[in-house]
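Q: How would the structure tokens look for this protein?
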Amino acid sequence: MQIRRVVCVDAAGSAKSQTPSAALAAADRAAPPYPALSILAGPLAVVEPLKLAIVFIAGQGHWSMSGLVMLFAYAVSLFVTHWLFVVVKPKLLALPWFARAWARFVALRDRAWRWVA
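A: Here is the predicted structure in token form.
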């Protein structure tokens, strides 16, 4: 089942239908920067213990199950966290320390791409 539209009610009490990503972006615009940072912690709090569980599942001899859990954990980590980061990045860039760290990361990434290319 795929969620195509959600109904959002604003402060004035009027309801409107939006896609889930538009609803999350609207909620993010209204929130201060630090709650936006905590939004990213949600998926990571679920995915990182799954990565630890992979070791225990593999230790019991269930290699195929541990492989499936590993694929799921890394897919969630990559796709969901990336999607959330794209949504909350403008709010995070309002934090001075995050803006400096992001600028350094982008400069290092661009230097690495120039070195590889």
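The chain has two domains: 1-30, 34-116.

The mean pLDDT is 81.

Upvote if useful.
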